[in-house]
Design a protein that fits this description.
The chain is α/β, with parallel strands linked by helices. The chain has helices at about 5-10, 20-25, 90-100, 115-120, 120-125, 135-155, 230-245, 260-285, 290, 305-320, and strands at about 45, 50, 70-75, 80, 105-110, 130-135, 170-175, 175-180, 185-190, 200-205, 210-215, 250, 260.
């Protein structure tokens, strides 16, 4: 019988359901797993499903670029890795962990989008014979921004970026793809526009686990990029994502496993909050400078708030002026 989120936390005793406020109160550690380039050791989310939870901060030499979640699913015939990682060596570090649980080969690597920490380790996995898979929009993102992303991370990670290089994605999809891992399957789903090009989620139906990726946030403040369409993100959330995700165990793109209610609060809740504040500001004839001063106190406990809050408000203002 599939476990619910509540029974999962009680049975495993891992404290997976972590509130945003408790994370904010916890001391930020430079490295929770010094024996490895991984920021933290992978945790078991459900049978066959593991995730190495990255630091909820920006890329740094100390976290070796592991600032997102790197997940893997073990089948009888194949292992699926979700996110190639930010570097060749980080991908190898994740593979070292996988080998502690199984000798089944990694046959599939799925990039949740085209961002650097999702794909710059892809060449390691290709060397292992894995098939690289991504959404067609993510491939365009990799082709247009990949070289700059690699150059940037080489400067940040220094020798920890050694061996990293861009490689072509082997297989793309637009809406949905199903992978048979042997005794367990993975459904790759594009719910619609979210925070970056080609954002996808991976659903493991036999375990009721949704590796939601960057469509869902709860521990750190969600980032709004210059090309993020927050109206479309909300439409995706309300029309396709919610109905599918509401009863699932959620592994977001950042932060530990949780439930739908939590990511709904800090993702949809924030998007509606900031868009509402900006709408009032525009109606009152406010300026971009005023947008930077919008009170976002209800979200100030989230990681990366100081770096992103004002920037987010400004980008929403610039977009909503023309909606």
């Amino acid at each position: 019988m599939l476990q619910t989120v509540k029974s999962l936390s009680l049975t495993l005793g891992l404290g997976l359901l972590i509130s945003a406020s408790s994370i904010a109160a916890a001391e930020i550690q430079a490295d929770r797993y010094p024996e490895s380039l991984l920021y933290d050791k992978p945790i078991k989310v459900a049978d066959n499903v593991w995730s190495a939870i990255g630091q909820t901060q920006y890329y740094s030499y100390e976290n070796a670029g592991h600032n997102n979640n790197l997940s893997f699913v073990i089948g009888n015939d194949a292992v699926l890795v979700v996110n190639g990682g930010a570097s060749y060596l980080l991908a190898k570090a994740l593979h070292d962990e996988i080998k502690q649980h199984t000798d089944t080969p990694v046959k599939f690597v799925v990039d949740e989008n085209g961002q650097s920490h999702a794909m710059l380790g892809n060449n390691y996995w290709k060397e292992q014979g894995a098939t690289l898979i991504a959404h067609s929009d993510a491939v365009e993102e990799i082709e247009s921004h990949g070289p700059d992303g690699l150059s940037s991370l080489e400067k940040i990670l220094k020798e920890r970026a050694e061996g990293s290089r861009l490689v072509e994605i082997d297989q793309t999809f637009d809406d949905k793809m199903t992978l048979d891992l042997g005794g367990i399957s993975a459904e790759l789903i594009h719910f619609g526009p979210a925070h970056s090009a080609g954002d996808i989620s991976v659903y493991i139906p036999q375990r009721n686990v949704l590796i939601a990726g960057d469509i869902a946030f709860h521990i750190r403040l969600l980032p709004i990029f210059p090309d993020t369409d927050t109206a479309a993100w909300l439409e995706t959330w309300n029309t396709t994502f919610t109905a599918f995700a509401k009863d699932k165990i959620i592994i977001p793109g950042h932060g530990g496993p949780t439930d739908f209610a939590t990511v709904d609060l800090w993702t949809r809740g924030y998007l509606e909050y900031i868009r509402g504040k900006v709408a009032v500001l525009i109606e009152e004839g406010g300026s971009l400078e005023d947008a930077y001063q919008i009170d976002q106190a209800p979200y100030q406990h989230l990681e990366t708030f100081k770096e992103l809050a004002a920037k987010n408000a400004g980008r929403v203002f610039e977009a909503m002026e023309f909606e």
